[in-house]
Model the fold of this input.
Amino acid sequence: MKTFYKEVAFGTAMFTNSLAISLLVKSVFGVSTLSSLPLVLSGIFSFISFGMMNFLVQSVLLLILIIITRQPKVAYIFSFIIGFIFGLMVDGFDIVTAFLPSTFSFRIAYFFSGWILISLGGALFIFSSLPLMPFDAFIRDVSAYFNVKVKLTKTISDLLFVSLSVTLSLLFLKSLVGVGVGTLFMAFFTGSLTQTFLDLLNRNYTFKCFSKLGKRLEALSAIKAH
Done:
């Protein structure tokens, strides 16, 4: 089996996920399920950018994770910092993608590219075993804590986020913002595609850290099963 360094997996996932979110916004078919809530909230609180609202929502999710597992970890401090950096990356890619064509055929390409990239990024984040963005740390650690498949945790989380996004959007914005047919599609199928990437990567690669810092961060990120 080939070696895939966890530090590389982490960096790749940061890039693919931030790009994927911007592509999904550009598609106008609906953003990813976990990004739907930050997008709606950034519409309600327009003085906060989408990227920074993404960071704030992830921070709240991180607190929920700690409450569920009752295992506060030093790694979550890194997750908090990573979430902030990710928010900046999303805002940066939003500026870049604003110049892309907006025809219907291109929008379809943006949506499916974003869906594939965000599923691949989620799998790479999990295999990195390093401090993750709060969204991905939540999925990985809750799955590990309750000893359930990532697919189940991801799907349930997606459906809850979509439901909350739709409710707030209709209540405060009087229309559906960021939630569309694409969001519903991703709510049901992103978990499955992420699991497919997990299985594919697991069959073909051995993941390990190449640096002492990576190994240290991996140890800090370990979660104990319930």
